[in-house]
Write a structure and sequence with these properties.
alpha+beta; Rossmann fold; four-stranded mixed beta sheet; globular
C-alpha cells in the first residue's frame, strides 16, 4: 500500500542538468551519488551545471552528494589506486565489454578532487556553507552544501 502511494508522488524526469526542467527554488534537497565527478571533473560545463542545481534549490536547501575522494593516508591511497587500475579498469572493462568506460571511471576516480577541493568548488559555485565527512578512510566523502 505504501509503495503505491509513493509511486503516485514520485516520478522520474529525464533532462539535461545544464537546463533542468524545473521552476526556480522548487526543491528543498537534491542528492547525487557517485556522479558529481561526471559533472565537474575536467568538465568545461561544470559552472553551468552547479548554477542549475543552485537555481532549483530553495533558499536554505541542501545539495547532498557522496563521491569518491582522495584518502589522506598515502598507503591507503596507493591501495585504492591499485584497485582502480587493476580491478575497476581491467576487470570492469572485461566483464562489461566497455573497457573505455571503465578506464574513464578508474582514472577519474583516481584523479578526482580531495574533499577539501570539492568544498571549495561548491563554495565558489555559490553555496553559503559546505560540510564534509570522510567515508571509508577518505576513499569517499559525504558533502552537504547549503544554498
Amino acid at each position: 500500500m505504501r509503495a503505491r502511494r509513493l509511486q503516485r508522488r514520485i516520478g522520474f524526469v529525464r533532462g539535461d542538468v545544464g537546463e533542468l526542467p524545473f521552476e526556480d527554488a522548487c526543491f528543498s534537497v537534491i542528492g547525487i551519488s557517485f556522479a558529481f565527478r561526471n559533472l565537474t571533473y575536467q568538465n568545461p560545463l561544470s559552472s553551468q551545471y552547479l548554477s542549475e542545481v543552485i537555481r532549483v534549490l530553495s533558499p536554505g536547501g541542501r545539495f547532498v552528494l557522496v563521491e569518491t575522494s582522495r584518502p589522506p593516508n598515502a598507503l591507503l591511497r596507493a591501495a585504492v589506486d591499485a584497485y582502480y587500475a587493476l580491478v575497476v579498469s581491467r576487470l570492469g572493462g572485461m566483464v562489461s565489454g566497455h573497457p573505455d568506460a571503465y578506464r574513464y571511471l578508474a582514472e577519474s576516480a583516481r584523479r578526482f578532487y580531495t574533499s577539501e577541493e570539492v568544498c571549495g568548488i561548491l563554495l565558489d559555485a555559490g553555496f553559503r556553507q559546505v560540510d564534509s565527512r570522510p567515508l571509508l578512510g577518505g576513499v569517499a566523502a559525504l558533502h552537504v552544501a547549503l544554498k
